[in-house]
């Protein structure tokens, strides 16, 4: 029998993934449940974009809906700071590389994801900037020099390979996008989970995970 593992397919710049952060935190409290992150690279390549008024007008209604449904906080510095900063670039690659580095160094990938989401959606920080990511890693107690070195090691091909594997898993479980959760049970069966039903029901989500795991 294998240890049950919750596979989480996400992107650090996905608003609905920020909305699902309480579900990830709830899963972290379940004894004997592993969590494995799979970053899908939503805003990479030709999908990278610079902030614009058009982008702000597009995302704000979605973000307000996410806040209403999940209770997650979107800060003033995000709505009227970052989303008005037309020099800022939305790029999933650097934060994904940072999450991989934090996981490799200290098993802190999930903590890094949570901190990146807070920095972006609450504090309006530019999470595609390496100095910002390095500061966030320091806040988690990771040594700057080691983190920067690991970021360099993970950048490029290792990050691209991770994204490709994440997208393959998304296709395998027939996920519709981000966030997608699938639980590999102790019998080895991979079971997709209907996250949409639980965004406002943490207790029900924990019950689902516990009941599905075995």
Residue share in β-strands: 5-15%
Q: Helix content range of the residues, please? A: 40-55%
Mean pLDDT: 97
- Strand line-up across the major sheet: 2-1-5-6
- Helical region count? 10
Q: What is the number of strand segments?
A: 6
User: What series of H and E elements makes up the topology?
Assistant: EHHEEHHEHHHHHEEH
Overall form: globular
What does this protein look like?
- It is a single chain.
- The chain is an alpha+beta fold.
- Helix content is 52%, strand content 12%.
- The chain has a four-stranded mixed beta sheet. It has a two-stranded antiparallel sheet with strand order 3-4.
- The longest helix has 18 residues.
- The protein starts with a strand and ends with a helix.
- 39% of the residues are buried.
Compact description:
The chain is an alpha+beta fold and 214 residues long. Helix content is 52%, strand content 12%.
Give the key terms.
52% helix; alpha+beta; two-stranded antiparallel ribbon; 6 strands; 214 residues; four-stranded mixed sheet; globular
């Amino acid at each position: 029998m294998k240890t049950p593992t919750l596979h989480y397919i996400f992107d650090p710049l996905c608003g609905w993934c920020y909305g699902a952060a309480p579900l990830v935190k709830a899963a972290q409290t379940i004894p004997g449940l592993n969590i494995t992150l799979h970053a899908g690279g939503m805003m990479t390549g030709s999908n990278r974009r610079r902030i614009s008024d058009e982008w702000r007008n597009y995302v704000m209604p979605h973000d307000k809906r996410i806040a209403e449904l999940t209770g997650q906080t979107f800060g003033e510095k995000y709505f009227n700071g970052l989303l008005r900063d037309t020099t800022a670039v939305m790029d999933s690659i650097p934060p994904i590389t940072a999450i991989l580095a934090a996981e490799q160094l200290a098993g802190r990938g999930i903590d890094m994801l949570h901190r990146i989401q807070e920095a972006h959606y609450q504090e309006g920080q530019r999470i595609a900037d390496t100095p910002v990511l390095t500061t966030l890693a320091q806040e988690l107690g990771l040594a700057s020099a080691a983190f920067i070195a690991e970021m360099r090691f993970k950048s490029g091909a290792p990050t691209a390979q991770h994204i490709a594997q994440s997208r393959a898993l998304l296709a395998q479980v027939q996920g519709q996008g981000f966030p997608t959760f699938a639980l590999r049970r102790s019998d080895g069966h991979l079971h997709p989970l209907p996250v949409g039903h639980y965004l406002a029901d943490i207790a029900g989500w924990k019950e689902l995970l516990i009941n599905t795991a075995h």
